[in-house]
């Protein structure tokens, strides 16, 4: 995945040996802390090996003498950032409404979440700062399992699946204020201090997502302005002041999007090819090794993945190549981005040996060093593909059945936490006429 997503964003880790008794005790200790839907998967307590990775929620970026302000880390699970254009797509709605937005209706209808998130991945992947700001605002408003904030390694803001508890914006603002003092002191007739803090926070996050830390300045081909918008997004196109700038080619979102777009057939076009491979493996079981169905995910696998595949010639090699591309694309659609923010100072020197970038907010000095990482990159297993087609059909059917509408009780309150933050500090100024 590092070849596709960029080595600067990936932590490969180091294999270490562990005592079996330690692993067994660890498995018991963490079991009660795992979500119920994760408990069907158990830790391998017999291999005696583990992967040692950095704690991305508490980064070790170089910083000057202690500022007594712990680092922040934001986890975003961006999901799929494009609309399919495959000729195999049977329902036209899939080319107009993104998978995430349709899936929200299905999840609410089945009780997984109490409220629908208004976040749309196409807004985040647009490269347009207004749309990205709008997308992150809705991630904060309804995080679900797509958005978390950590402070000093401890999670301070997230949602619990199926919970009806309202999120505490005031608590989040309490944590964020020390990092955005400029937002607290700014006098702005159109914005409360709370909203200013949130806006500054989002602006810093957008800057980190658009930065690549390299010298590249290329911009994506947005595949046509019409197809870069999801019809379910609440963002008003008329609000865009500067058009769609696109993503810098060295940014983390660009690399993720390019990898996601290895899925050129959609599951509807991919499934018959999966069946071809499955039948071949039933007839010739030993071929699993040659075709690298379970890996190893090495240079040979990457060559199969990146090999140009012309029209389907009916061969198993063509089918395997497309199946591998789909699996990697699905991994990129389900990965997480970790953005670490470390409070800095104006005098801080850059260290080119570390993945550090400076954030510049107008009218004030640099506030942060930050690094961007991608995780959750375990390859999607070959045997998971059959479940994708019926799930896709259920999601589309649910959306078409409801007409893209939900009962009012299932929707986030119109006032929202941002509107509440703005109202709380509202001041009326009366002028003589």
Mind sketching the topology for me?
Layout: H1 2-5, E1 14-17, H2 20-31, E2 49-52, E3 72-76, H3 99-109, H4 121-124, H5 129-141, E4 147-151, E5 154-157, H6 169-176, H7 181-185, H8 193-210, H9 252-260, H10 266-283, H11 287-290, H12 299-306, H13 316-333, E6 336-343, E7 357-358, E8 368-375, H14 385-402, H15 416-424
Antiparallel strand pairs: 1-2, 3-4, 3-6, 4-5, 6-8, 7-8
Helix pairs in contact: 3-14, 5-8, 9-13, 10-13, 10-14, 12-13
Keywords:
433 residues, six-stranded antiparallel beta sheet, two-stranded antiparallel ribbon, 37% helix
Describe the model.
With 433 residues, the protein is of the alpha+beta class. The chain has 15 helices and eight strands. The strands form two sheets. A six-stranded antiparallel beta sheet has the order 5-4-3-6-8-7, covered by helices on one side. Strand 4 (147-151) and strand 5 form a beta hairpin. Helix 5 crosses helix 8. The chain is globular. 34% of the residues are buried.
> Helicity level, as a percent range?
25-40%
Annotation field: number of helices: 15
Low-confidence stretches: 214-218, 220-226, 346-358, 408-417, 420-428
Instruction: Report the sheet with the most strands, covering strand number, pairing sense and barrel closure.
Output: 6 strands, antiparallel
Overall 3D shape: globular
Order of strands in the sheet with the most strands?
A: 5-4-3-6-8-7
Count of β-strands: 8
Report, as a whole number of angstroms, the end-to-end distance.
66 Å
Evaluate the radius of gyration.
23 Å
Order of helices and strands: HEHEEHHHEEHHHHHHHHEEEHH
Beta-strand percentage range: 5-15%
Q: Structural class of the helices, strands and pairings?
A: alpha+beta
- Average pLDDT, to the nearest integer? 82
């Amino acid at each position: 995945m590092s070849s596709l997503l960029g080595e600067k964003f990936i932590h490969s880790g180091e294999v270490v040996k562990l005592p079996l008794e330690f692993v067994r005790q660890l498995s018991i200790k963490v079991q009660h802390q795992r979500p119920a839907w994760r408990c069907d998967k158990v830790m391998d307590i017999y291999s005696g090996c583990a992967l040692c990775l950095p704690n991305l929620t508490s980064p070790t970026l170089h910083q000057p003498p202690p500022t007594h302000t712990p680092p922040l880390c934001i986890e975003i699970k961006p999901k799929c950032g494009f609309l399919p254009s495959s000729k195999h797509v049977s329902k036209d709605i899939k080319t107009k409404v993104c998978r995430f937005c349709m899936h929200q209706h299905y999840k609410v209808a089945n009780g997984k979440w109490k409220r629908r998130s208004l976040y749309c991945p196409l807004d985040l992947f647009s490269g347009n700062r207004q749309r990205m700001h709008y997308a992150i605002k809705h991630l904060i408003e309804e995080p679900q399992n797509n958005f978390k904030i950590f402070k000093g390694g401890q999670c301070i803001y997230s949602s619990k699946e199926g919970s009806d508890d309202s999120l505490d914006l005031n608590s989040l603002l309490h944590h964020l204020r020390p990092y955005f003092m400029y937002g607290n002191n700014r006098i702005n007739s159109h914005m409360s201090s709370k909203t200013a803090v949130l806006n500054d926070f989002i602006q810093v996050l957008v800057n980190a997502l658009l930065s690549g830390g390299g010298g590249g300045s290329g911009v994506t081909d947005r595949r046509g302005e019409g197809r870069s918008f999801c019809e379910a997004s609440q963002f008003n196109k008329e609000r865009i002041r500067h058009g769609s700038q696109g993503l810098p080619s060295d940014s983390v979102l660009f690399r993720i999007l390019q990898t996601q777009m290895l899925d050129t057939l959609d599951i509807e076009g991919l499934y018959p090819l999966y069946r071809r491979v499955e039948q071949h493996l039933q007839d010739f079981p030993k071929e699993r090794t040659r075709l690298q169905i379970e890996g190893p995910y090495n240079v040979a696998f990457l060559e199969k993945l990146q090999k140009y595949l012309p029209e389907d010639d009916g061969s198993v090699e063509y089918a395997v190549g497309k199946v591998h591309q789909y699996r990697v694309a699905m991994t990129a659609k389900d990965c997480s981005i970790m953005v670490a923010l470390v409070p800095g100072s104006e005098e801080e020197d850059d260290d080119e040996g570390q993945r550090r970038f400076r954030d510049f907010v107008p009218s004030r000095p640099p506030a942060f060093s930050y690094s961007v990482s991608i995780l959750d990159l375990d390859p999607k297993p070959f045997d998971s593909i059959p479940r994708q087609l019926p799930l896709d059909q259920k999601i589309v059917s649910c959306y078409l059945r409801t007409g893209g509408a939900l009962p009012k009780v299932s929707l986030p309150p119109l006032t929202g936490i941002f509107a509440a933050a703005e109202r709380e500090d509202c001041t009326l100024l009366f002028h003589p006429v």
